[in-house]
């Protein structure tokens, strides 16, 4: 479950409540993303709070853009988050999709490349390995709890990006706009092949999509309103045109079938992105996941 960090009028109490409900529920991961030129919370500051507010759930950034940070300071911040969470941190990394975020921090948009990101990842891994990356008395710490640093995922929807990340990532933190299972499985196959060619174990396969549970018209309008706010760099008429087929809306039973479909193509996780800060949406998804887990367990028992 993704935190509602892109919703308006956030406050600490609401974010803490979401974190607690997610941590107490059947969710495997708690996720959040990064933007700069927007009114969402700073991702790395929020990481510290989420580490304190939760005890069980895995914390997943989906995604942090290394080119928007000094890579040594980013490595230190993420190692600190891994320490505070007891080794529960997974870091999704991506190049980002908005030049305005680069310009807001004085970063060159020309650096919005996979090569530039990979170079920064290499530096961060050296920091996490305890190497001195400058002529300092001591290396940059603290050491992360997870040996070699947090698990790294590449945020992507394209095969070229997937192939280029096989050398440094443990898997994918992708996204699907239209929930096309065939296209998603094609991307998963690209990852499986790329990881095998790199001599690595099977990649972790995760995807994400916007969701709204409710009556058809109201739920779809909820998705539309969220997209108009979030996709503020795209003309509103274009967002309105894609809104009817972007993300997912429907009933709990329909969501159950959608999640079964992604499980059927080998997805290890689906990172659901809320389109409202209504905590009832989380409770309703938790009911769906509990039912999914029960039927999966029952099926496994019957097979055994």
TrEMBL record:
Pfam families: Bac_luciferase. Keywords: Monooxygenase, Oxidoreductase. The lineage of its organism: Bacteria, Bacillati, Actinomycetota, Actinomycetes, Mycobacteriales. This is LLM class flavin-dependent oxidoreductase. InterPro entries: Bact_Lucif_Oxidored, Luciferase-like_dom, Luciferase-like_sf. Residues 16-241 form the Luciferase-like domain. GO terms for molecular function: monooxygenase activity; oxidoreductase activity, acting on paired donors, with incorporation or reduction of molecular oxygen. CDD domains: Tetrahydromethanopterin_reductase. GO terms for cellular component: cytosol. It comes from the Bacteria.
């Amino acid at each position: 479950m993704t935190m509602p960090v892109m919703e308006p009028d956030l406050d600490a109490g609401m974010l803490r409540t979401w974190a607690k409900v997610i941590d107490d529920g059947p969710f495997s991961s708690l996720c959040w993303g990064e933007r700069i030129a927007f009114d969402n919370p700073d991702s790395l500051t929020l990481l510290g709070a989420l580490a304190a507010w939760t005890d069980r759930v895995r914390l997943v950034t989906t995604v942090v853009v290394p080119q928007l940070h000094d890579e040594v300071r980013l490595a230190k911040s993420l190692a600190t988050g891994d320490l505070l969470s007891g080794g529960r941190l997974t870091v999704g990394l991506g190049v980002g999709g908005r030049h305005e975020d680069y310009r807001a921090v004085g970063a060159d948009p020309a650096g919005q490349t996979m090569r530039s990101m990979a170079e920064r990842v290499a530096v961060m891994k050296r920091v996490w390995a305890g190497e001195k990356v400058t002529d300092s008395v001591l290396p940059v710490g603290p050491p992360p709890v997870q040996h070699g640093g947090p698990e790294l995922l590449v945020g992507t929807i394209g095969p070229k990006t997937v192939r280029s990340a096989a050398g440094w990532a443990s898997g994918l933190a992708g996204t699907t706009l239209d929930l096309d299972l065939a296209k998603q499985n094609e991307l998963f196959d690209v990852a499986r092949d790329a990881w095998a060619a790199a001599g690595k174990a099977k990649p972790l396969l995760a995807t994400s999509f916007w969701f709204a549970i409710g009556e058809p018209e109201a739920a779809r309008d909820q998705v539309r309103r969220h997209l108009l706010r979030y996709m503020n760099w795209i003309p509103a008429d274009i967002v309105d045109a894609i809104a009817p087929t972007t993300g997912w809306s429907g009933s709990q039973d329909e969501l159950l079938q959608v999640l079964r479909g992604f499980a059927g193509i080998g997805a290890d996780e689906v990172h659901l992105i809320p389109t409202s800060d209504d905590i009832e949406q989380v409770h309703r998804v938790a009911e769906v996941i509990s039912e999914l887990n029960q039927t999966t367990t029952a099926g496994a028992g019957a097979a055994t």
